[in-house]
């Protein structure tokens, strides 16, 4: 069996259409939409609405940790645009989801990232797209468990949840062969982004489950340029599958 795994797609529908080549299935670990691109300020929903210059200003504020100023700037821009911001975002997100799900190969097993809007996925998922969160499924004789979303941060991305809710989803999986999540377990080397120069949030519940149940693999994304892309916890190989928007190629898991 070969499963191609992607995470942090962020709008790369072109590459996603090829992600199932030479594979029996695709696993997607979320973050399908692109709100703003930290590397290319002209790409994403924010610059489409307000321009690349404003996007750069917004990114610079967030990168500097000046979140209150970034939110105030964003509020002023939305007010000047007029109408309900949620309607503008909904239209833009739906347009991206339409492209992404049309390109998503089948069969595919998907869970949510922290920037995703789970309520919209059923409107675009096609037959052969299996959406899983706090659930397990058998693929090629192995049990895969999926935990979507992220934990609360100052960034306030759409699908951040409380630690307790996240831990309940991890606990619901029980023993699995492959633990799939968007965010990494709480191992510092896996959480540090060498380009952004900051630590992302990881899950203590996922780390505890790995130590307790020792799956063969723990697969995740979220940290685009990790200090360490893989490590071992007991018998479990922990693997950051890569920033798909940047790489355009999936991680291949074979057994």
Automatic annotation (TrEMBL):
GO terms for molecular function: hydrolase activity. Transmembrane segments: none annotated. It holds the Pfam family Metallophos. InterPro entries: Calcineurin-like_PHP (IPR004843), Metallo-depent_PP-like (IPR029052). Residues 1-226 form the Calcineurin-like phosphoesterase domain. This is Metallophosphoesterase. The lineage of its organism: Bacteria, Bacillati, Actinomycetota, Actinomycetes, Streptosporangiales.
